[in-house]
């Protein structure tokens, strides 16, 4: 293999591959945007039980995600390591998008509703992780040279943002009373949530079909690494000995903490802190945020090509930090709109560096151990994504409890509004500050990056030659 090997992959394949991001992000962001508000404000589960449910979910993730990553790296099949998992998860994930919004119809604070909530969280996580983890692992294996990886990454991020825009904006046009402020005037709110889940399921089915039909290509010389996989204990041990990965965990966790806090609290924050009662205006603000993020992707690609993924991440995080502080103290629609423009720019940079850095880390790991272990790395990152959501929910629960907003009240006091501003501003700013420190010490840059690229090319040449001799 040489550095141009991935250029053999056609534009159609790259576009079809990026379709996986549409299904992934419609699923994840619909879940993130609606799950807390639905079960807290519509179903009526108290904050304390919501927090307990997410803690139980976290404990499940601690086992589920690394195990799926490990099993994925060991999978042997005629379709390679990743594709069987993706096929098996596609339909269940779509079905679960509907089941998320169909709890027991009594809508009372009964144990059955809480148990349904916890079970549906766990089932969603199994299906989502099985697809997303293997999809991301396949990205680092299909697109190896830096030019093609960077270009494909740009397409992926654009698809991510378009899907995220849809997931965050579409519900605001369908669900008339997203916070269930007036259930008498809007009795169809629960059914509108279900309809949103049905639409999300349809999108997942269509776009997963596109990637599975035309966007996947199993690199035989890499999938053969399943025969040389490590034990589960050694896999975890060597993963967490990787210093580049350990430094990257700070900005990775920070990125997802901040990404997830916006859609989780957006309905409550815009309604009660900014004073926007029209759900369509909330949708417009979210749309602006992600349109700017998508439009900024070519800028971040240029910075990444000229300065590297590390510098791209540092600049993006710094812009984002300033933006969240300004945005959280918006008091009307126009202020929120202006600050959303800056926030979108930071969001675009935060998303772009993430994919590029983890691919570099997996490259370096393969050079060290001779086996490509994409699955376990994305498993840890998937756990971080879920952990970020759980940490957010726990912190939200603590703030809501301290401001006496344990059960939903459509007329909160000034303490609740201050709490919402802190959750949307001070908290993410602190998180991004720590992320900036981690990104500063991220060591894959300059000569080390160039040396890694050369060693990876030589290693893949050996693997390809070995397969050719056997065939």
In a few lines, what is going on in this structure?
The chain has 16 helices and no strands.
Keywords:
single chain; 471 residues; mainly alpha; Growth Hormone, Chain: A; 16 helices; disordered N terminus
How many structural units, i.e. domains?
1
What's the CATH C level?
Mainly Alpha
The assigned CATH architecture is Up-down Bundle
- Characterize the biggest β-sheet: none
Stretches where pLDDT falls below 50 for ≥5 residues?
1-7
Number of strands: 0
> How much beta, percentage-wise?
under 5%
Q: Mind explaining what this structure looks like?
A:
- The structure is a single chain.
- This protein has one domain: Growth Hormone, Chain: A, CATH 1.20.1250.
- The radius of gyration is 22 Å and the shape is globular.
- The protein has 16 helices and no strands.
- The two termini are 17 Å apart.
- It has 471 residues and is mainly α.
- Helix 2 runs antiparallel to helix 13 and helix 9 packs antiparallel against helix 15 (426-440).
- It has helices at residues 11-42, 47-74, 83-99, 111-142, 146-174, 189-214, 220-223, 232-239, 243-274, 279-295, 297-327, 333-369, 374-402, 414-424, 426-440, 446-470.
